[in-house]
Structure formats: structure tokens, C-alpha cells
Design a protein that fits this description.
Four copies of one chain form a homotetramer. With 145 residues, chain A is of the alpha+beta class. Chain A has three helices and six strands; from the N terminus they run ααββαββββ.
Chain lengths: 145, 145, 145, 145
């Protein structure tokens, strides 16, 4: 059975190997089966005209957390693709330390469901989100449908 | 009545003044009342481990298009905040030229609704999205609720 | 190639054979490949405490329209199951004649996407919705997972 | 401070006074501030052609649970209207006893957020949902916009 450290190492390796994730600057702080927690620093250049962190950035952050949570369940022989992302913005986010959590609700034979949150350094809930994922056997021919 | 050029100028000025939007690198290609079209170049560093453009980036792009479409309707005395963003991923996106469209469905006294799309250079539909926005009178005290 | 009348007959037969649909009281007014339009009468007993048609009823109506639109594309050998339903309520609905439209956005090998609307007798848009469907080969063993 | 019994009585009175809710046949089993649990019996005539409870019915059930949860927070002087309903279908539902839960995530000055679930008699999670609500001061002029 997978333990936390194996999953944590696997997720960190994946993030380092992905150009987008590496550039985005997240750190994986916790990983268990179906459960992931990330740390991320919102910088001044993530602010919109109102001085708040842009909603697209928060959507990206929580999508990464949920996708990695799905990742801990599907195992190496299957891949997952986001088919649906829903994000509710509860409170404005300001630059500074944020935390994102992703939790698997269910992974079936073809479809996976996860939920996620973003909180600020004081623990205030800023975002709640849900994601639906298509889960397929890894293809060797590179086709994507 | 606003004409296209006035709206186009206003949106371009807003984008230039927002640290996040300026860094993201979009261009406003069309703007009419309730209707906005953006151009954006997905680069190699937007790819995930599978070589596809990360879904969070596409969510950001279509959220910007929808928010700017709402912007063309609410006028200078009101501000809008995203309360809900829903994104459906229809096909994988690869690095290259993308186009995002935002269209207002309705703006009421307190809530606005918009829909959006992302297409690739060949016109294939990659993303469909919807957004809900809280529309309020601009505050002068800087409070955000 | 399927023509309208064949699809129309197929959808009407399905509705008559489904206990829920038959009781709900919809009529299929138009059907083409990927495109369905339904008529439905909201009655006094569909009102909530505020005298408006309950949102769950409108969600049901637009889900039926979208599901039938998917049905026109998947053909007899595949079945579809709703995995995600998103409904935006633009304006309140009152008892009387309503119309619901469903349109397919894309049907892939495993997942289908549709969008839908509900309008009142004067053509005012009351609801916009999106649905995601899992599309699978019909099983003969009765299993659902 | 409101206690459970006062809230429970208020919700039961509201349900009895609403034509739609009374006909739908739910019972309020638990109510605390921000937290509601309902019981409901899915009957044979709620089945679709595949013998499963129609998704629109489950959307209605969870929307009622979330709306009542919002109701426990907004108090008598404010009314709430659903602006957005998102439903994820995790597993098929068969006729029999179902339970729906609604929980408030946040109620701000203008917008409220809730989440909900539907489970079957064995405790299996069938549906997860989220709702966004416009919260306004009760109007005395009967206007809805």
C-alpha cells in the first residue's frame, strides 16, 4: 500500500517535470490517498486592477490541488483529464501566502470527482471548487481523441 | 451611445493598468456592448506533463473575456466581482494562437451572467464557460465586504 | 441519415415509456440531430412560497431537453448518464407555457456536452444551463458501475 | 439565539405553505443554523427509462435542502433566490428512502453559498451539489427585479 512519502515524492516529481507547474511555483505540503494540500505565494503581479488576486489564478491553484488528489488514486497506468471545473469565490484574495486543498469524492471506472478549497494564512475560506475528470487507460499512441 | 472604439480603448487601458492582465499578455481584438474577443498565445511553458495547455490557464483566459464583456455593460460607476466560474473542457489545447470570446447573457441590478468560449487557430471549440458576477456600486472606502 | 421525423418519433416513444417523463407532461416539439425543443406547462402547484416556479422544476425541464439532444446523437447502441448539471437562473418564472431547448456542443468517445435554455411564452430567457454526460456502450448485464 | 426547534418549526411551516414543496413530499428531519437534513421517498414514478431516479428530481431535492439551509441564516427580513445550481451525479439512485443535506458555506451581504448531498438508505453518497443565492431585503411592492 502507498504511504504518504511515496505519494508525496511522486507528486513532487510530476510537478518538477511539468513546465507549467514548475513555473507556477507551488509546493506540495501534504499527500495521502485522495487528499492533497499545497502551499503557494500570491505575488503583487497576480493582482488585478482592484488590487485583488485574479480569479483565474485561484481557479488554477485549486484545479492543480484537485487534479493531484485524483492523481493519488488513479495510479500510474491511468491518466486523468479535467472535463469540468466549477469555482465559487467566497471572499477576495490579497497577495500573500495561500493554501489549497484537494479531496477526492469518488473515482469510478471512467469518471472521477474531486472538491477543493483555497484558504488564506489566517485560515479564512476564499474559494470552494469542484472538478470532474475523465479517467482513462494511458495510451501509447499519443492520440487524444 | 458607446461605440466600439470607446469600449476598445477603455478595455485596453484597464488591461494595461492591471499587473496581472498586463503580464498575462492578452490583446483585445474586438469590443462591442456585451461582446468581447481576445487573442492570446499559449507558450511552451503553459504545457502540463502531457504537453497540453493547463486547464487553469484556459479558465483564466475565458474568465478575462467574460469579465471584460460584463465590463462593457456595467459602466464606470459600478464594479463587478466573479462569484462563480464554470468551465467545460471539450478538447485538449496545444501551444499556439488561441482566441477567447465573452458574451453577456444578462446584467440585472445586482447580478450579471456571461458565457464564453476558447477556440484554436483553426476555429475548433476547446472550451465553453459560464460566469456569474456580483455587480455593485463602486465604493469609495476601499472596503470589500 | 436520420431525418427529423424519425428522431421525433424515437424521442416521443422514449418519453412515453419512461414513468418520470410521462408524468412530467412535456411535449417534444422539434428534434433534429443535436437539437431538441420541448413545450411544458408550469402549473399553480409548481409554485414556491413566493409564487414562482421552483428552480428544481426548471432544472429538471432543461436537463430533459439537453439529455434528449444528446440522445439524438449517441444512437441506439450507446447510453448516456448525466454526470454534471449546471443551471443559471436569469429571471423568475411564473406558471404558464414554457419552452426548453437543448443543443449538443460535442459528443466524444466517452463524454458528451450540451447546453440548454428555458424561455417563457413571450420569448424571455429565464434559464441557461450546461450538462456533461458519460456516454457508454449499452451493457447487457444490467450493471451500472 | 435560535434553537433547533424554532428553526425546525419555521421550515416545516414554510414547506406546508408552499404548493410545490407540499406536493414534493419532503420531511425536515434536522435543522440548526446553517445546517438542514431532509428525508424523501423516491417512488416508482420517479424512474426514467433505465429504472433510475431522474437527475432533475435529485437536483430538486438537493436544491431544497441547500435553500432551507440558507433560510436558517438569512432571517425573516431577507429573501433568497437561487442564481446558480451545480449538481454532480456520483452514483445512480433507485427508488426508496433518500436523505438530503444542505450546509451554508457563507452568507455575505448580497450573496450566499451552500453545498449539499444526497445519500441513500445505506449511506452511499449519490449526489454532491453547490448553490449560489442572491440575498436581498424583502420587498413590499411585489417586484422581482
Amino acid at each position: 500500500m502507498d504511504d504518504d512519502d511515496t505519494l508525496l515524492e511522486d507528486l513532487r516529481r510530476r510537478i518538477a517535470a511539468s513546465p507549467f507547474h514548475a513555473g507556477f511555483g507551488i509546493s506540495v505540503e501534504h499527500a495521502a490517498a485522495g487528499d492533497v494540500r499545497l502551499g503557494w505565494e500570491a505575488r503583487a503581479d497576480h493582482r488585478n486592477l482592484q488590487g485583488l488576486v485574479h480569479g483565474g489564478i485561484l481557479a488554477t491553484l485549486v484545479d492543480i490541488a484537485m487534479g493531484l488528489a485524483i492523481r493519488t488514486i488513479v495510479g500510474p497506468s491511468r491518466r486523468h483529464v479535467t472535463i469540468d471545473l466549477g469555482v465559487h469565490y467566497l471572499r477576495p484574495a490579497r497577495p500573500g501566502r495561500l493554501e489549497a486543498a484537494g479531496a477526492v469524492v469518488r473515482v469510478g471506472s471512467q469518471v472521477g470527482f474531486a472538491e477543493g478549497s483555497v484558504t488564506d494564512a489566517t485560515g479564512r475560506l476564499l474559494v470552494r471548487a469542484s472538478g470532474t475528470y475523465s479517467v482513462t487507460q494511458e495510451r501509447t499512441d499519443g492520440a487524444t481523441d
